[in-house]
Amino acid sequence: MDQEITLRVDGKEHTLTVDTRTTLLDALRERLGITSAKKGCDHGQCGACTVLLDGRRANSCLVLAVANAGAEVVTAAGLADGDELHPMQRSFISHDAFQCGYCTPGQIVSAVAMLREAEAGWPSVVSEDLDADEVVLDHGEIAERMSGNLCRCAAYANIVPAIAEVARS
Amino acid sequence: MKPFTYQRAGDMSSAVATVAERPEASFLAGGTNLVDLMKMEVLTPELLVDVRHLVSHQIQDLPGGGLRIGAGVSNSELAADRRVRRGYPMLSQAILAGASYQLRNLATVGGNFLQRTRCMYFRDVTMPCNKREPGTGCSARDGQQRDLAILGASKLCVATHPSDMAVAMAALDAVVHTVGPAGERTVPVNRLYRSPSDGPERDTVLDRGELITAVEIPAAPIAARSRYRKVRDRASYAFALVSVAAAIEVGDGAVSGVRIALGGVAHRPWRATTAERELFGMPATEESFRAAAEAELAAAWPLPGNAFKVPLARNTVVGMLRALTEEAR
């Protein structure tokens, strides 16, 4: 049961025909050859497939491509400005915030979105003052806000400082 | 995943009529639970009617206090709303305690109420499960029991409802607004879920084709100092073993108002009406809190693998009420 859809991915528009069962993740990877978002668990539990979907971080494995026709999608590959890496990407490299690297694109997209959420004053479940205007991204806040991204190599010890450095700047 | 047709609904009445008439059809909103269950073929709808764009995405003040929350509001937006953070902190905390930011950005408020149990036997199509396939039996009762219910369960089904948000909604006396083939109606959250002894395959009292359009939270000054505590196997991103939404008011040393609801212990968010009744007018002491929690849990019917939930629920209730009353001093 095919349907034609248009997706804007990393600034480029694509029109494609997909089976209704195709997730956004599979549309990106299998149909468009955009492999930045990774397939880990395929059940929304690991976060490797995280993309920005109309500006918000989301698990691309749990959304149907047909239900997101016309959507604006940004993957980790689309965060860079040409050859100029995004500050979060640079920070992950300088902090050696990965081992195998499979979860990294999802971690980076998630971290970029997390900083925007914190800037907007969104609280987390560990926030002392739920109503605070300003979010202080200490270790506990970053860990909680990134808990939807698992790292099987357990590179968390470097992921948290990599994010904290960008948060400070 | 089984093949299906996808339809973006044009208007509410045709969406409702379509799903009401076709037993193989299902509404789609955020999809975080439905798409996952379709991948495992736990659910196999042949038609998805997408209603996300049709239901309201607004949070409005109600005249006289309280909030009306459109069913299409994302879990993230509701948790971050200033009015919720100030007036109903237990609701913000409950939502923030569930899932991850990625999931909460996708998941809708309407869908949160209707998510299916995470009972591993429901999610495993190779195992008997009365909720998935009525009459096949319950694998959970003699299986892994850690996550199962201790209150309100039946021999047919001992699964728990997974929502954190719904626990706070139950404590807040929230009311769900629906539109269905028979028109519009309202259902209090505390009457939304059916007992598993009446047939565990249907989670709620909603009719086929009946759609949640909004939820209203009445004004509740008591809720301004309330909180939600979730006990789980991991520090984050895990379902509750036990959770508690609570608020308490004390006047002249006696309890003048109290709200308690439990999560992770039953097929529905469990409003602790017995404990609330026991506490009203009693001295706000740890002894009263303990006696009330024990009165509520006297009806518990645990299995060997989840008996730990009885003292865990009691201690969490006592700890929450103590913290709330100490803060108020």
TrEMBL record, chain A:
- Gene Ontology MF term list: 2 iron, 2 sulfur cluster binding; metal ion binding; oxidoreductase activity, acting on the aldehyde or oxo group of donors
Concerning Gene3D superfamilies, the annotation shows: 3.10.20.30, [2Fe-2S]-binding domain
Checking InterPro entries in the record gives: 2Fe-2S-bd, 2Fe-2S-bd_dom_sf, 2Fe-2S_ferredoxin-like_sf, 2Fe-2S_ferredoxin-type, 2Fe2S_fd_BS, Aldehyde_Oxdr_Iron-Sulfur, Beta-grasp_dom_sf
Task: Show the Pfam families listed in the entry.
Answer: Fer2, Fer2_2
The 2Fe-2S ferredoxin-type domain extends over 3-79
Q: Which domain of life is it from?
A: Bacteria
Do you know which PROSITE patterns this protein is assigned to? 2FE2S_FER_1 (PS00197), 2FE2S_FER_2 (PS51085)
Which keywords does this chain's UniProt record carry? 2Fe-2S, Iron, Iron-sulfur, Metal-binding, Oxidoreductase
Biochemical pathway: Alkaloid degradation; nicotine degradation
- Its protein name is Xanthine dehydrogenase YagT iron-sulfur-binding subunit
What is the scientific name of the source organism?
Answer: Streptosporangium subroseum
From TrEMBL, chain B:
> Which InterPro entries does the annotation name?
CO_DH_flav_C, CO_DH_flav_C_dom_sf, Diverse_Substr_Oxidored, FAD-bd_PCMH, FAD-bd_PCMH-like_sf, FAD-bd_PCMH_sub1, FAD-bd_PCMH_sub2, Mopterin_DH_FAD-bd
- Report the Gene3D superfamilies cross-referenced here: 3.30.465.10, CO dehydrogenase flavoprotein, C-terminal domain, Uridine Diphospho-n-acetylenolpyruvylglucosamine Reductase, domain 2
Q: Does the keyword Mitochondrion apply?
A: no
Give all residue intervals belonging to the FAD-binding PCMH-type domain. Answer: 1-222
Which keywords has UniProt assigned to this entry? Oxidoreductase
Which PROSITE patterns would you find in this protein's record? FAD_PCMH
Pfam families tied to this protein: CO_deh_flav_C (PF03450), FAD_binding_5 (PF00941)
Recorded GO MF terms: FAD binding; oxidoreductase activity
> What is the protein name stated in its UniProt record?
Xanthine dehydrogenase YagS FAD-binding subunit
Species name for this entry?
Answer: Streptosporangium subroseum
